[in-house]
Structure formats: C-alpha cells, structure tokens
Amino acid sequence: RTLCRALDAACVLSVKGGPVAALREGFELAYATQLVGDAAEGGRRVCGREIREGLGASMASDMPPPRPSRFTDDDADLVAGFWVAAGPKAGRVDAALLGDGAAGAFCLTPTVTQSLRRVARALAFGRAPILLQGPTCAGKTSLIDYLARRLNVRCARINNHEHTDVAEYVGRYAPLPDGTIGWLDGALTGAVRRGEWILLDELNLAPPDVLEALNRLLDDNRELRLPETGEVITPHANFRLFATQNPASCATSGAQYGGRKPLSRAFRDRFVEIHVDEPPPDELAQIVKRVGGVPPSLAAKLVDARRRLARLRLGRGREGGTLLDGDAALCSARDVLKWAKRLGGSADKARALLVGDDLLAQRLRCPTDVRAVRACISQALEATLDDERTWASVRDVCMQQNVAPTAAMARLVQLMGAALDHEEPVLLVGETGGGKTTACQLLAAMRGQQLRVLNCHLHSEASDFLGALRPARRESGGALFEWVDGCLVEAMRRGEMVLLDELNLADDAVLERLNSVLEPARTIALAEKGGDALEIVTAHPAFRLLATMNPGGDHGKRELSPALRSRFTELWAPACSSREDLRALVATTLPDAAATEALLDFGEFIKGMADDVKPPPLTARDLVHWAAFVKHLEGKVDVVEALGHGCGVVLDGLGVANPCVEADALEACRDVCERRFAEICRGMGDVEDALKWDRAGPPLARDAHVYGAAPFALEARGDFNGDAFCDDAPTTAANLRRGGRAGPPRRAA
Question: Is 746 left (phi over 0), alpha (psi -120 to 50) or beta?
Fold first, then answer.
C-alpha cells in the first residue's frame, strides 16, 4: 500500500522538474514524513539519492510549478510549492501576513514551513487522510487551522474522547422538529457530502472499534457506508480528512499522555503520517514576537527563561513537591505565548518578571520550588522580585460575602482575576478545605456573574458537560425527544462562569473532549447533536471557565495529563495554616476572641501530638464548622459549654480516624484531649460537663414533642412508640446523644 501510494503521488503531483522530481516527492510523502527529528531530513536525502542514482537523472531545483490544467486561479492556491484546491478567492486570509500581535496571527518559521510543506504535499495528492503526530504545544491543530483560513475552506473539528461513539461521526436516527423520527447526519457524513474538511482531534483517545469503522472511507476507494440506512456515499472531490494526536509516550521529553493508545498498524497504514516537531528556541522567539507582539529582545529572554526552567529538577511527590513529567511540563510553549500576550506589547522587564511569576511560580506546591523558579526567571530577564509578594486587599468584598479576608484568599483572587481578564481557563490545585471553591464564588460575585458548578466524578461523560437528547417537555410541539444543552454549553452561550469541581476525578480521555474550549478560540463542536450542519458554539465574551482539584494520590485522584494540564493556567492553593489567617476565618463566624483563641490552641495541640492514636489535624474547614456550631448554640447554652460540645463532636470521630484500634486506646486518647481542652478553657469557665455529656448526660426525653437529650433534642411529630427498641442501654444512649449533637448546624454526620 505504501509503495503504491508513493507511485500514485508521483503521478498526481505537479512538480517543476518532471517525473524524477515528482517521484522523489512521492517517496518522501510515503516514507519520510513520519520520521522524527533529524531522521526526517535523512530520509529525504536517501529518497533523492536513490532515485537520482537509480534513474540516472539529475534532480531539478525546487521551483514553483505551473498551475495544473484542472485548476483555475479561483479554485486553487499555491501553498509551499504545491497547488491545492481552495475556496472562493475573496474569503482567503493568509494569517502569516497579519501584523505582530494581531488576533489570529501565524508565524512561518523554518520548522513550521517544513511541516506546512509536508501537509500541502499530502493535500495536493488528495487521495489519503493525513495524520499529524507530535508532542503537545507543537502546533498541529494550529497548522490545519491556518491552512483552512488561507484556502477559505470550512474545517469542522471533533475532539475525541473515551466515550466517542460512531454515531457522532456518521449520524443517528433522532427526533425531528415535526415530532417524527428521522436520520440526522453526523459531522463526518456532512463534511463528506459537502466537500468540507474534518479534523479528528486526539485520534488515539477514541475507542479502537470506533476508529476501525472508518476503514472503508480511509481506503483508496473512499466510500462511507451508513449501515442504518444502507446508503453508500462517495465523498465530494474536495473532502479532506485530518487527524491529530499525541504519542502514547514522548521519547524526547519523557511526557506520558494519559489515556492515549497506540493505533493498530493496519489503521495507521491508511494515513499519510506527518511528524510535527516543536520549533527550536530561536524559532519559538520569532513566534512569541509575532503572536504575542512583544519586542524581539524580550521575546528572546522569555524563551531563554523556558530553556533554563527545562533544566530544573524540582521536588516530586504529594508531600510538598510538584509532579511534573517531561522537560516542557514546567513551562510549555503555550505558557510562553500566554506570558507574551499578557504583556500586551510591553518591553518592561520588571512587569514581565511579575507576569512570569504569576504563570509559572505560583502553580508550584513547595516554597523551595517557588524560589528556584523565581530565581531562574529573574536571571533570564535580568530583573529582581521580592521573595514575599504583597497582594491587593479584598477586605471589602470579603465582608460583603461573609468571607474571611485572609492573605491566602487575597492571593488567589488576584491571581485568578489576572488570568480571567485574559480569558484563560484557571485550574486551582490544593488540599481539601483550602478555600478553592470559596475563591471561585468570591470572584464571581466581584465580577457580577452567575457561577454554575458541575461536580466531576469517575463516571462523568462528555454529555454531562455538553448536553444530550432528553425526553421532550410538553411545550416542545409534539417531538418525543429534544436536545438539551449541558451546563458548560449553557454557560458558553449566556456568558456565565462555570466551575468544574474535583476535575481529576473524571477521566482524562473524557475531559479532553473540552480541549477546544480551553484554547484561545474557545469553541466547541456539538458532534453529538447531529443535524444538517455541525453546530459550533463560540463562547460569549464574558464566559469564563474555572476548575478545582486535590493533588494526585488522594483517594483515586491523579494528576492530569500534560496535554490537558498545559491548556490551563494552574495555581496552587495552599491550605490555610498561619494562625493569623485561621483567626480571621474563625472570627468571621465567631466574634468571641477568647473562644476563637481556644479553638486555635486546641488545633495546634492536635497538630503537635506524636502519639500513634490521635485525632486527625483540624483543617480550616473543621475550625469554621466548629465556630458555626458554637454560634448555632447561642442563646441555648453559654459559650464555654458550646465550646465543650464542639470539642466532643471533634473527638467523636476518633474511631473513624483510627480504624482497627482497641477501644481502650481510643478512650485513653480521648481523655488526654479532653484534659488538654479543659486546661485551655480554664480561664473561661468549666467545660467538664459538656465534654462528658454524651456518656453522662441527661436521660433521653420521649414525648409527643421531642425526642433526645437537651440541648440537642429533636422535634418529634407524634408519641414515641419504640418499646421494641432499647435506648436505655448506656452505649446506645451515648450513641444517640452523639448523633443528635452532631447534626447542627445543617452539617452531614
């Protein structure tokens, strides 16, 4: 098949220099373009030498060939030395000719031009689908987008994922507007009929059985059969199929791309494979200058900072370190372009250092790593930045939203605000109780936007984000089913903020269906919806996307793949640990200063315990719940007694935190903690009775109005008739008291 493709290409390609030059181009197309690095140029030289020596003819120079007779000036364009079918001339836009910093500007460096020439040659051949493979941020999708705009051709993009279905490609039977059931073409079928381009992004994320269903369309006879209708479609002459993918693992950078599967040899053999390399540093500087609009000297310094960061070997692991796979994980080409765009053409190195710190250092999870990255950027930019940055106050808005104005909250809000101002998706990573969700809610309030929250989980599907066919409501005009937009698509249409909570619980292969939303164009193709034309939703200018996750290793959660991670602006949200910040958090709910200090003292005592059996450390969330518990009891008991009951609730979880521990050891640990809390509260009053209330409290009340022990008796709705249940036994009574006490205020127990 490969040899025949090389000979077919030699017959089709119109190259100045005659059949010998055309034969060389055909063999390069079939054999050399999938080679990596220097091997590609070696393969090109071998093709030329063998053909030249075998045929005894000299190779002609690479000169623009004459336009083939089958084309006119209005339906073809010369791209990188090859005549390619194009749309109407009036709508063609060569983004490489746009000014520096212009929206959609494209930079043709030598490496990019080489990749462009390979793609143009495959397009001129026109008989085989094209597969572009390379590391993330290499510009695979951008290259196809540039060609589509230059040739004025509509190109639909489908982001593949773990649950991609054949129906998304070819179509399905679905309800029509008049209430009947009829066939709706999928995105691929529509492109085949109309002669458009289709881009299957992240091809190796789709299930293999779905991809194998396309074999006949990818063969030389090029037919698409619809089994449901029996129709056989011959593609329009201008139809072209592209695919992009990251390798299952990258040999050059060491990155592992989650969810990617090696394609079968039989399937890959049907494509013209083209390897797309990342541009070298000097070319990346040209791209940064062109796309970001910054001066050449500063562009070179940004790229030099990236080169220096690639050499850093930072801490690894959950305990303080950062999980970064591959040389480019800390600072990818996307990060450098974000860096340049935020500068907006400015040449100020001090501002560039501040922006670089926001983008690169503030994502790291260890203070030592932050200092190392900051020093590396400072050396590259020849500027300095204080070790301890100050953050703008958010006190006023925090007080309006009843949120503690801590320094950690001010930092998060300022960093997130800078990212959202430039339409960047934001990923907050941090331990539970660190205020990630609160920061998102606060930012939405500051911007006056509606915040939609979608909780991800292990079985999340693309339809949870994008939408699906649902049973129709009565007002739908008689249709049985109708398309209902998902949470993300609704927010894109209306210009709202959307929060994807616990992002890393969902599978990478599902999340990467959203790749196009995370890129600067901020679009999504609803291939699942079907219809006469593929619907492409472009985000409202006010739309913003936020995501939160706990670090990998926490109960089934894992780090995101490099391809997905590089599309976010990542920020580390450290747990609120300083006494000053914790005091501000508790004081927002509990104004009593002495009670606040008692909570903080007990939290520090638990944190410093060295015993094998001990309560779990009190997080900021635990302290705030304790404060809310005390506030809830205001007017029922005094503050000291409420503090004692709150401490009892904390210690009631000892057995959960220490499974398989003997009861005597748990009781001994509880006694130690109760004595210490009694000492902390000695100057405030007696707390002993409240600490022992669950075991030596009042008898349970049973009547038509209440059940339980005061002050946590529950409202009853009738006489107690539980003679078959013994609630007088000491252990049972203690458990009932604990259960009643754990409920307020509206907290799950």
Answer: left
Alpha carbons 622 and 600: distance in angstroms, whole number: 11
The tokens of 157 are what?
């993009």
Distance CA 544, CA 554 (A): 27
CA angle, residues 470, 474, 477, in degrees to nearest 5: 90
Alpha-carbon distances, residue 230 vs 216, 225, 458 (angstroms):
14, 7, 37
CA 88/CA 672 separation, integer angstroms:
83
Better pLDDT: 266 or 453: 453
Q: Which residues pair with 171 in a beta bridge?
A: 185
Separation in Å, CA 261 to CA 93, 166, 220, 247, 270: 36, 18, 25, 8, 17
* 73-112 as b/e: b if 16+ CB within 10 A: eeebbebbbbbbbbbeeeeeeebeebebbeeebbbbbebb
Judge whether residue 132 has pLDDT over 90. Answer: yes
pLDDT tens, position by position, 314-323 = 755 444 444 5
Extract the tokens encoding 362: 């503030």
Q: Which residues contact 542 (CB under 8 A, 6 or more apart)?
A: 449, 495, 496
pLDDT bucket at 182, cuts 50 / 70 / 90: confident
User: pLDDT tens digits for 492-528?
Assistant: 999 999 999 999 888 877 888 888 899 888 999 888 7
Question: 577: which 2 tokens?
Answer: 């640990």
What are the tokens at 738?
Answer: 């604990």
Residue identified by tokens 């990478």 is 508
Torsion 472-478-482-485 (CA) sign = negative
Element (H, E) at 198: strand 197-201
Q: Are 141 and 30 in contact, with CB atoms under 8 Å apart?
A: no
Mean pLDDT of 433-459: 90
Global confidence as pTM = 0.82
pLDDT for the residue 629: 92
14 — pLDDT class (breaks 50, 70, 90) = low
